[in-house]
Design goal:
242 residues, 6 helices
């Protein structure tokens, strides 16, 4: 088994979408194109039930993981959710290959010695696989108080990714954008430390077009858009495709 290239969108949001396509539909389209959508809900207090349902729905449709945390726990959660989703994807790959080879995808039906070898191989693949992650941040007005925690989380995430043996490339974008539904803060890079202060690159807005932003994000993975996203101009999207 070769080391897979794993693609993820990591959506960080604290609110409910209020403009454009349903984000659950956009997440499903991402997953159809082999891009996992993970979601982290950030809330100072208890999150609204409808926001929780939306977060759960996006992650489920996107084949990913989700968590809802306070800003203080954001850093650790970004790392945990990313690696849990990566592990789930790798296990699914192994499950599919087992089914093709021996007619079952269940490890419980594999002899103990072979089972241990498979588990060790999965751990090795997790470490060596190539990760491509688009970090998509909700910058609606209510996220303003969470920017400091988000900056620290990105720094810690950068350190975590660079400690892996496998390659990792990350792109950072925020929504809503000025001209399109999202703004690129940093295009594909292996060094997120180049982002010194997020607040210098971000302008807060009242709208939360989560679905359109997710759809637009797919173009940065080289996937053609299903609809027109422009709010008044071109975002130069093709310059950022990895």
């Amino acid at each position: 088994m070769t080391n897979p290239k794993l693609k993820q969108i990591l959506l960080i949001t604290d609110g409910r979408s209020n403009k454009g396509i349903d984000p659950v539909i956009a997440a499903a389209r991402a997953y159809e194109n082999d891009i996992t959508v993970n979601v982290i809900g950030v809330a100072d207090r208890q999150i609204h039930p409808s926001a929780r349902r939306e977060i759960e729905g996006i992650a489920e449709a996107g084949g990913g993981m989700y968590d809802i945390v306070t800003p203080a726990k954001l850093s650790k959660t970004i790392q945990t959710v990313t690696y849990q989703a990566m592990t789930r994807t790798i296990h699914q790959v192994i499950h599919d290959e087992l089914r093709q080879l021996i007619g079952t995808g269940s490890l419980s039906e594999v002899p103990p010695k072979t089972r241990m070898q498979i588990i060790e191989k999965a751990e090795q693949i997790s470490e060596m696989s190539h990760l491509q992650i688009l970090l998509l941040m909700d910058t609606s007005a209510s996220m303003k108080t969470k920017m400091t925690a988000l900056e620290q989380a990105i720094h810690d995430f950068d350190v975590s990714l660079r400690s892996r043996s496998g390659g990792s490339r990350v792109m950072v974008a925020s929504f809503p954008g000025k001209l399109t539904y999202l703004d690129v803060i940093m295009t594909w890079t292996t060094d997120l430390s180049l982002i010194s202060t997020l607040s210098r690159h971000i302008s807060m807005s009242g709208t939360t077009p989560t679905g359109p932003a997710l759809e637009e994000a797919l173009q940065y993975f080289g996937i053609n858009s299903a609809s027109q996203f422009s709010q008044g101009g071109s975002g130069g999207i093709q310059d950022y495709v990895f």
